Amino acid sequence: MHPASARMLQVGTCKPAQAHFDTIQQAVNAAFNGDTVSICPGTYPEQVSVAKALTLTNVKNMANPLITIPAGGAVQNGNEIGLNFPVAAQILVAPPSTPTSPMDVTIRNVVVDGAGNEIHGTCGLDLVGIYYKNAGGAIQGTTEQNQLLPPDTQGCQNGLGILVENQTAGTHTITIAKNTVKNFDKNGITIDYAEADADISGNVVTGNGPIDYIAQNGIQVAYGARASITSNTLTNLIYSPGTYGSAGIILYDLQASETRGPSSVGKNTIDSAQYGVVLDAAEGTAGHPVSISRNTISNSQFAGVGLYSDNYYDPPKSNDYIDVSQNTIQNTSVYDGIDACSDHNTITKNKIGSSNEAGVHLDGLCTEPDGSQSGKNNSVSGNKISVACVGILSGPAEGENNIGNNKYAAVQNNIVYDSDDYTCGSPAHAPRHAQTGHKKGGIVPGALSPMRRVRR
User: Fold this and answer.
1) Cα 197 from Cα 193, distance rounded (Å)
2) Type and span of the H or E element at 105
3) Angle made by CA atoms 268, 271, 272, in degrees to the nearest 5
4) Predicted local distance difference test score (pLDDT) of residue 368
5) Cβ distance 157 to 214 under 8 Å?
6) Could you count the other beta carbons within 10 Å of the beta carbon of residue 267?
7) What is the predicted pLDDT for the residue at 370?
8) What is the predicted pLDDT for the residue at 19?
9) How far apart are CA 96 and CA 90, in angstroms?
10) Does residue 376 contact residue 402 with C-beta atoms inside 8 Å?
11) Percent of all residues in the chain with a pLDDT value above 70, rounded to a whole number
12) Would you tell me how many other CB atoms lie within 10 Å of the CB of residue 241?
């Protein structure tokens, strides 16, 4: 029989209580739906599984508790959706096998540390700090750190700070706000699958770059998920060989829907990521474009904003109807401020400075699903482009795009047509591509890298 009102269950002895629990898992097991598990400051070496609606938090006005790897290392306690890949989650949130209603769980003000995980020599186990599987709720004010595999296992495309995978209809939105994610392997925050809907705001995600063993991503939204991504800070996401590219924010395989609004990316600060914001086979509709707006992106190598149709699919998937507006993009050292390798996009009122090749590239190198050349039917106007070899570089011929009035300063060539590679005295660059996913992947010159590109 459930109690009449929610209870507070205390872990540890930091405050007087009628009863307390020695471990977080003991308190979770004893809790009912709606209860709060309040954790005293201290270190808790355990992997916690939650299968009921509750709140997991610190004791109010006390230091955040530290959840660490148990003695002997992390062990499998679940399987990911889709490919049923084994996972070792430090906190696993998943409803019972026969849920009666959507399950919402709040995790607040805890530190999850993956150091000492002992996942050696195998790519067959994914270490995750916090994993929500077919569950909604909130992750707020937490720190995920050291979801980093040992050196002999790094490069396996595993090792995630926060992972949300939802495929159960009716699962509620998850809020991921004001968390710190650092020293991970593949992705900082990952949202996957068609029933996943996330509000991701105010997080700080710091990559390990430059590194030579994996192409990291700060935030990934993929495989039909939807997210509003706002006011996050993402830095140091660089794969040093440059054969693939790390991304601050990557949207991958998100197809248009009139009934469910598209994802949006706004007011984020991204510094030192090979791609600032990348969309690969992620599209809106004519009436509801994906919005990439008011972001500040600096020190990207390959593109501040990259829009790519995806030829890995058969047939290929397009990446159309993206609105790229009012972004500030500075210091793209190899290629373009904005690289639009797709169609029907609107690129307006951006400030683009110091692009090695082009401020805006209307890129003809990504074949559309019907076999036609990409980089057509785009609208480019009201942009301020400074210090570039080419202001607007168009692979398609003149007239294939609507290029309106743009302002140019210290640009050697305002507009160039019929070319996808143009240099002003410097050597020509290698061909570009991108690698995506958590699990194998990166974007290549840079390619993108979503977490599951190679695991298919």
Assistant:
1) 9
2) strand 104-108
3) 145
4) 84
5) yes
6) 15
7) 83
8) 80
9) 18
10) no
11) 91
12) 12
The DSSP result for 15-53, as a single string, is S--S-EESSHHHHHHH--TT-EEEE-SSEEE--EEE-SS
| Strand ranges for 143-196 from DSSP E | 143-145, 160-165, 174-177, 180-182, 187-192
The span from the CA of 229 to the CA of 224, in Å, is 15
Say if residues 272 and 235 touch (Cβ distance below 8 Å).
yes
Supply the pLDDT for residue 453: 34
- Show the low-confidence residues of the chain (pLDDT under 50): 1, 427-446, 451-456
- Under 8 Å CB-to-CB from 456, ≥6 apart: which residues? none
Give how far Cα 381 sits from Cα of 18, 48, 159, Å. Answer: 67, 52, 41
- pLDDT value at residue 6: 84
Q: For the chain, what is the radius of gyration of the CA atoms?
A: 23
Q: How far apart, in whole angstroms, are the C-alpha atoms of residue 38 and residue 56?
A: 6
Instruction: Give the model's pLDDT for residue 353.
Output: 97
CA dist 58 and 323 (Å) reads 41
pLDDT of residue 4: 56
**Could you give the angle at the alpha carbon of 439 between the alpha carbons of 436 and 445, nearest 5°?**
30
CA-nearest of 92, 90, 91, 97 to 74 is: 90
Q: Which ranges in 369-453 belong to alpha helices (H)?
A: none
Task: Measure the CA dihedral 308/313/315/316, to 10°.
Answer: 0
Where do we find the tokens 């070496």?
45
Token pair for residue 349? 């009122």
Does residue 368 contact residue 309 with C-beta atoms inside 8 Å? yes
CB neighbours (10 Å) of residue 22?
A: 11
| CA–CA gap between residue 254 and residue 196 (Å, rounded) | 11
